[in-house]
């Protein structure tokens, strides 16, 4: 089986969960014997492949998706979707972004036929949402029949289960801290996290960087922090220091405005950390009752949940749950099953 992966042109410019999902899915499929190529429009033809797998419904991918259908090549789409209006209206995105988001929301409602994301989802031969909750949200927001979705969960590397804290402690001298990992931006809500933990005496470690510098949100975070907050910058996903950071922390915190479900939280949970996570998005499909959920709008809620989790000892309940359900090997098998369903 020969497959082409396609993604928006901005993919891989700043590494995040969607990029990791694509690359890890590619590796898992290759281990099953699938020949996977990152599509290059200058060197490749869609007709050279058994199917094309498009990651996200980003409008910029519409021309290629449309061409794939005209060429009568099966089209698989990983939806990677959650509605963003609440995030833009109530987070620290700025007045201009709020107005743009509100205008785009009403444009899609009034001119649904012109919504390229909707067109991509409707032209797909099969949709691969990351959870049942996401599948239902796509069906509700875009009018796609629920039976056209085949749930393929997000995954995590087995290596995080063997993580040890020593490397991180030797480098930074920190342990039993609260850890946040991710791009520094309003959606990830680090500013509220800093405010929530201020005065608790609990060390807060933030790994990640903004998409560009200078970045007003990042600058606001720097102004808000005190000596208990440690910004470590970007650490590569393949760096052993990242898995060691997960093992060294006591509590992992992801208080974002939404996540689907937040690969970093799966990694931290597999490494044995207590997890406090947003209740927005598809997190409950993955973390069930093994974590504490927070309302990203409430600094008080974040603070209380972290203090409660920080006062509890670590255990293996979440680690075992993730190991049984969300390794990348499982993702590869489910994706391969979806491909065979399309091609049969």
From TrEMBL:
<protein>
    <submittedName>
        <fullName>Glycosyl transferase group 1</fullName>
    </submittedName>
</protein>
<dbReference type="InterPro" id="IPR001296">
    <property type="entry name" value="Glyco_trans_1"/>
</dbReference>
<dbReference type="GO" id="GO:0009103">
    <property type="term" value="P:lipopolysaccharide biosynthetic process"/>
</dbReference>
<feature type="domain" description="Glycosyl transferase family 1">
    <location>
        <begin position="175"/>
        <end position="313"/>
    </location>
</feature>
<dbReference type="GO" id="GO:0016757">
    <property type="term" value="F:glycosyltransferase activity"/>
</dbReference>
<keyword id="KW-0808">Transferase</keyword>
<dbReference type="Pfam" id="PF00534">
    <property type="entry name" value="Glycos_transf_1"/>
</dbReference>
């Amino acid at each position: 089986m020969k497959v082409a992966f396609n993604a928006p042109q901005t993919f891989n410019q700043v590494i995040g969960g969607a990029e990791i999902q694509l690359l890890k899915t590619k590796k898992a499929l290759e281990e099953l014997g699938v020949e996977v190529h990152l599509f290059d429009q200058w060197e490749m033809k869609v007709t050279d492949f058994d199917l094309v797998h498009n990651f996200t419904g980003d409008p910029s991918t519409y021309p290629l998706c449309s061409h794939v259908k005209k060429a009568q090549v099966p089209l698989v789409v990983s939806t990677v979707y959650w509605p963003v209006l609440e995030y833009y209206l109530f987070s620290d995105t700025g007045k201009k972004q709020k107005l743009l988001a509100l205008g785009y929301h009403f444009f899609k409602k009034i001119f649904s036929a012109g919504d390229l994301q909707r067109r991509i989802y409707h032209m797909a031969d099969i949709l691969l949402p990351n959870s049942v909750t996401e599948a239902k949200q796509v069906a509700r927001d875009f009018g796609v029949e629920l039976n056209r979705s085949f749930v393929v969960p997000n995954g995590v590397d087995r290596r995080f289960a063997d993580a040890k804290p020593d490397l991180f402690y030797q480098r930074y001298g920190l342990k039993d801290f609260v850890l946040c990992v991710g791009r520094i931006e309003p959606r990830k809500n680090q500013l509220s996290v800093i405010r929530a933990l201020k005065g608790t005496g609990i060390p807060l470690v933030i790994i990640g960087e903004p998409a560009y510098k200078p970045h007003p949100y990042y600058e606001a975070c720097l102004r808000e922090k005190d000596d208990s907050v440690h910004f470590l910058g970007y650490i590569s996903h393949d760096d052993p220091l990242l898995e060691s950071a997960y093992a060294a922390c006591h509590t992992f915190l992801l208080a974002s405005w939404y996540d689907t479900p937040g690969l970093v939280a799966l990694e931290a949970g597999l490494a044995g950390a207590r997890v406090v996570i947003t209740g927005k998005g598809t997190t409950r499909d993955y973390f069930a009752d093994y974590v504490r959920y927070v309302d990203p709008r409430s600094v008080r809620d974040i603070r209380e949940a972290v203090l409660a989790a920080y006062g509890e000892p670590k255990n293996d309940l979440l680690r075992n749950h993730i190991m049984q359900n969300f390794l990348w090997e499982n993702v590869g098998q489910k994706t391969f099953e979806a491909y065979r369903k399309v091609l049969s």
